[in-house]
Design brief:
This protein is an alpha+beta fold. The chain folds into 2 domains: 140 residues, no CATH class; 83 residues, Lipocalin (Beta Barrel), CATH 2.40.128. The chain has 3 helices and 16 strands. It is elongated and about 60 Å long.
């Protein structure tokens, strides 16, 4: 009897060890896919912009010395990210190359994983704004006529997204892929209870599904009170 109980204990411990190892492997896969800089800091932002019908141009100046330049029309977006400096009352922009963009600031995996359950995703940009529409099932778009996507949309809860991992097997971040050229695709199998992602970007870089990254933008701006001027282009500070 004692021998049987001892063997049962050994088998239980072995099963737990193997399960933990499998979950750890899955966790490492997610961590590798969404590798983070770990350099998160509280950021504020000023926005200068101009609108022309369905088109607009905006320049976001963030307190961490980075900028986001976004221009586009009707759901299409041209985006540039980089560093900025003030020199003699002029604003100078230094764009990153596409390969230099590090989009993930922090990744937190909380709780145990188990099959046929749900995972809560909490995704925010570096200003703390929610980015629930950043993640979606692979190959899907947000369509209220699609039952799976409709379920995802109605399951937005308190700035989070509740995803049924028993119904969706693969997730992706297509806007990050468009912006950086890297694939962000991962399995939902054995995801933990909560996944927290802090994106190392201003959400202005991720407004639309169609994103083109460009480096050739106006790089020198004259500062005039609440305006930025480059030749004939004038951007006004948003209130």
């Amino acid at each position: 009897m004692l021998a049987a109980n001892h063997m049962k204990t050994i088998l239980t411990l072995l099963f737990s060890y193997l399960s933990i190892g499998y979950v750890k492997a899955q966790t490492n896969e997610i961590s590798s896919m969404l590798s983070s800089t770990g350099n998160c800091q509280k950021v504020t932002s000023k926005c200068y912009s101009v609108k022309n019908g369905f088109c607009s141009t905006s320049l976001y100046i963030d307190s961490d010395s980075t900028f986001t330049y976004e221009s586009g029309c009707e759901g299409r977006s041209r985006v540039t990210i980089g560093k900025w400096r003030n020199i003699n009352d002029s604003l100078h922009l230094y764009p990153f190359k596409k390969s230099e963009i590090q989009p993930i600031c922090n990744l937190e995996l909380i709780g145990n994983s188990s099959p046929d359950t749900t995972t809560i995703f909490i995704i925010k940009d570096k200003l703390g704004s929610p980015l629930n529409d950043l993640i979606m099932p692979k190959g899907k778009t947000y369509d209220i006529h699609d039952p799976i996507m409709f379920q995802l949309m109605v399951n937005n809860w308190k700035d989070s997204l509740v995803i049924s991992t028993s119904k969706i097997d693969t997730l992706e971040l297509p806007r990050l892929t468009s912006l950086t050229g890297k694939n962000y695709i991962f399995s939902t199998k054995e995801l933990p209870s909560v996944v927290k992602i802090t994106v190392n970007l201003n959400s202005a870089a991720l407004l639309y599904d169609e994103i083109v990254y460009v480096e050739n933008i106006p790089k020198s701006w004259r500062i005039n009170k609440k305006k930025l001027t480059h030749e004939k282009l004038i951007l006004e500070l948003n209130k």
